[in-house]
Amino acid sequence: MQTLAQLKAGQLQGITRLQLVENLTEFPREIFDLADTLEILDLSNNQLSSLPEDLPRLTHLKILFASNNRFEVLPEVLGQCPKLEMIGFKANQIHSVPEASLPLHTRWLILTDNQITALPERMGQLHRLQKLALAGNRLTSLPASMAQCHNLELVRLSANALAALPSWLLKLPKLTWLAFAGNPFSHTLVDPHADVASVPNVTLADIELGEKLGEGASGIIYQGRWLNPAMVAATGTEQIAVKLFKGEVTSDGYPADELDCCLTTGEHPNLIKVLAHISQQDQLGLVMALIPQGFYNLGLPPSLETCTRDTFKAGTEFSLKDIVKIALQLAETLAHMHAQHISHGDVYAHNMMINRQMALLFGDFGAASNLAKLSTSERSAMQAIEVRALGCLIDDLLPFAGADRADALRAQLRQLTELCMQPELSCRPAFRDIAKLLARLWQAQACEV
User: Binding positions for ATP (predicted)?
Assistant: First the structure.
């Protein structure tokens, strides 16, 4: 992060990325002094409500973030910026998105947590659009023209007022990560504060919170321990992990929907085990088994460059056999979830943990959707969308098995990837069939040892 004082003193010449958090109410004109090099401009967490009409003078600007400001209208000047392709205006008070505000070369549009009731037909002309985040608005429909957004891969529609899931959406050839919980057409939540049959309902009085283990869009995870001896006896452990939801709409939707999807999914060997739920009037949460020592994240989140695809640490290596084992466990897990009419919505390596034996643990239901109210054909399409996500995962892992000479196995995995990612959704295999194929590949490898 840089400072306004540095900018005004001319100390930032030549930089490509600028981030200013200075309670700004006006766009600093000195930013134009950086026009020859500036590519990324982050003005989030200020008090801005407008942008200058000569913003296109920033001819190299590719990415603009202005979240947590005071914009009420998405600025029309954005559409005139010659290279702008990533736009983020999360958590403003935007109620209007003019047609002119959308550059035709947009790849990434984040408008989460605003007051938008409608989008312009121009959306259908954004043929490069890959990532679209609209959770937490007031949308009642989407433009039919968006059926032409054939490169769209990630869509967040949760916590809106959509009357139906658009039929064209479930036909997009590259759609891979979709979340839509918290809309009138989707699952009707039972009282999130009520008891459920699957796991006990506890309160924070039953728990002692310890160190913070991590934080995501929907909540904070702590290490904890049971103070209630009855829960120690019921769960067979004193040490636990506790996820406390933040209680507000997130980039993926409402915490109550995440809680519902997680509890509806139930148990599976490759899902992080849920021991109890916290459903106090002032706090929702999950109590989970602690992840055993030796587990680590399979991947890292997408970068600005990769947009929708995961990244991996330098030095990452897998054998082809490792990839088969990871994919098999994931296919079995997703088959279980879809049998319970739950889609995950965020099938990414960064939401998975593995150990040295390639045992898989999968979690984070923040983008999950309950499919119970969808038709059979819609549920099949939702499964096909997540099948593509499995294909993307295998596709992402294969380059890290470069030294493995098992050419036949590599070809089989490549063929499976192509099947999972083919444009026609109805031609993609189901998770049960994928799991059977991967089980055969795994058994064949075991026989060769």
Answer: 243
